[in-house]
User: Which sequence fits this backbone?
């Protein structure tokens, strides 16, 4: 595979695999993958990072096989059960120190994106006391399923802030589909 503008971490691929197992979809997805992607999925820690084509193939196959709702559930399980194990301690400290608000967690997303992807940046842009936008910039156009991945991931984050329900009010695909602007309100 040619090197793309960003990479996904071994932790991310391992979490992707675990969520597929949890949903009972691993075998159905594996048979549809490119051989090189299947090799990475079988041994995610064979390298620290993997080319963006791995994520694109995994996402395209899962989305085509299962649709939006299952793709979002997959992302939620990944965030909760894999990446969450790494990030929850940081999020809990932030909530204790700066308040139990979705803004507290969303402001930490830019620092935590590197646990999943290299070459992707995120910025939290507050727009008042109860709303703002999480802006995620990729160095290349992304698959449309990326929006659903973020929806599932943010669902998990919102659950960490008990008593303050947050919602995604809209998602904009900008800059030739290289930027997601995810508007959140609570």
Assistant:
């Amino acid at each position: 595979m040619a090197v793309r503008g960003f990479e996904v971490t071994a932790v991310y691929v391992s979490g992707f695999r675990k969520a597929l197992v949890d949903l009972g979809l691993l075998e159905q997805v594996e048979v549809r993958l490119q051989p090189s992607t299947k090799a990475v999925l079988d041994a995610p820690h064979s390298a620290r990072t993997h080319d963006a084509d791995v994520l694109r193939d995994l996402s395209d196959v899962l989305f085509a096989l299962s649709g939006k709702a299952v793709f979002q559930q997959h992302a939620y399980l990944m965030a909760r059960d894999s990446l969450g194990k790494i990030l929850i301690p940081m999020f809990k400290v932030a909530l204790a120190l700066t308040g139990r608000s979705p803004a507290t967690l969303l402001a930490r997303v830019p620092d935590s994106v590197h646990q999943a992807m290299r070459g992707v940046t995120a910025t939290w842009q507050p727009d008042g006391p109860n709303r703002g936008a999480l802006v995620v910039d990729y160095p290349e156009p992304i698959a449309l399923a990326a929006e659903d991945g973020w929806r599932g991931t943010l669902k998990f984050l919102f659950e960490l802030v008990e008593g303050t329900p947050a919602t995604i009010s809209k998602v904009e695909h900008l800059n030739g589909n290289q930027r997601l602007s995810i508007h959140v309100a609570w």
